[in-house]
């Protein structure tokens, strides 16, 4: 049963985020007074990711019998790993632009916007040819990784899985908006662009299946998987999303950013409460971690 839930949740997170991104593009994502403000989406996603990491994934991992110092070391390793992964992608992206005789200053700016979990602004200047395939490939790999993280959370507790799936969906919406912009520039048919990005989104489900099998084989490592998932969410929020919000804005717009950030935190909390009720967490741990140890075998 747990595998079926993982498949359903990863499909919603992977494909649902694409369709929601397409809907927002249709409504109009812009910074003006009309349409959907992309800054609000980024704030909401950052709040959801931080709440999921600090209020759910990390506490669950630290309730194991593993030494906290070791788990903190894994957390540090995860943050450095995702930083190096981002650096590698930035270097590759900048290398491609140098071949295209793009000015160095522009490369640096576009490279910064090409963080592996957002990539919004640079899409407006993306190449109209083979660049779309590079976007799809990178998106597919990233979605596969998201699926593994969601599966790890589900194996620990169904509530954690639902919260993680929600967080992934929230931060993938701004990402997929950029992907759709790129593919619509390289294709005259907008439906083809939507289908391509949706197919990349299905990799979240494949990652979920792979993650379920992997954690099933290495269940004693589950706390480490949860810490790595938490480090991923923290890195994305602090290194990718929040820096885009750090702009000098009028008091009203700043207040709106803060409110949407808080809304992301509240949304994650409400989903967690609805998933298992007020006593769901206590019930899960009263039964002992041994019970969650065989949930994934159902």
Q: Which percent bin holds the helix content?
A: over 70%
What is the number of helical segments per DSSP (H or I, 4+ residues)? 12
Compute the gyration radius: what is it?
A: 19 Å
Shape: globular
Report on this model:
There is one protein chain. This protein is mainly α. It has one domain. The chain is 79% helix and 0% strand. The chain starts with a helix and ends in a 6-residue tail after the last helix.
In summary, what is this structure?
It is built from twelve helices and no strands. With 298 residues, the chain is an all-alpha fold. The protein starts with a helix and ends in a 6-residue tail after the last helix.
Top keywords for this entry?
single chain, 298 residues, mainly alpha, globular
Q: What is the fold's blueprint, element by element?
A:
Elements: H1 2-27, H2 38-62, H3 68-99, H4 104-113, H5 131-156, H6 158-186, H7 190-201, H8 203-217, H9 222-245, H10 251-276, H11 280-286, H12 289-292
Helix pairs in contact: 1-5, 1-6, 1-7, 1-8, 2-6, 2-9, 2-10, 3-4, 3-9, 5-6, 5-7, 5-8, 5-9, 6-7, 6-10
């Amino acid at each position: 049963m747990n595998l079926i839930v993982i498949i359903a949740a990863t499909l919603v997170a992977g494909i649902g985020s694409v369709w929601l991104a397409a809907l927002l593009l249709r409504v109009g994502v812009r910074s003006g007074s009309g349409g959907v403000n992309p800054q609000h989406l980024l704030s909401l996603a950052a709040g959801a990711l931080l709440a999921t990491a600090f209020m759910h994934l990390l506490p669950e991992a630290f309730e194991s019998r593993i030494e906290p110092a070791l788990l903190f070391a894994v957390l540090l390793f995860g943050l450095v790993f995702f930083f190096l992964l981002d650096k590698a992608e930035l270097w590759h992206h900048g290398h491609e632009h140098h071949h295209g005789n793009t000015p160095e200053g522009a490369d640096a700016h576009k490279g910064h916007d090409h963080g592996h979990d957002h990539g919004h602004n640079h899409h407006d200047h993306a190449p109209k040819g083979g660049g779309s395939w590079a976007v799809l490939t990178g998106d597919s790999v990233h979605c596969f990784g998201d699926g593994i993280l969601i599966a790890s959370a589900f194996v620990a507790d169904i509530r954690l899985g639902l919260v993680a799936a929600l967080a992934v969906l929230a931060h993938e919406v701004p990402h997929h908006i950029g992907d759709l912009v790129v593919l619509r520039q390289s294709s005259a048919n907008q439906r083809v662009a939507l289908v391509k990005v949706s197919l990349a989104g299905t990799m979240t489900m494949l990652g979920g299946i792979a993650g379920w099998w992997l954690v099933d084989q290495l269940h004693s490592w589950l706390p480490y998987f949860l810490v790595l998932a938490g480090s991923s969410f923290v890195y994305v929020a602090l290194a990718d999303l929040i820096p885009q919000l750090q702009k000098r804005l009028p008091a009203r717009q700043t207040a709106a950013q803060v409110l949407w950030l808080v809304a992301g935190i509240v949304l994650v909390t409400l989903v967690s409460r609805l998933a298992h009720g007020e006593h769901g967490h206590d019930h899960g741990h009263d039964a002992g971690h041994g019970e969650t140890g065989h949930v994934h075998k159902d």
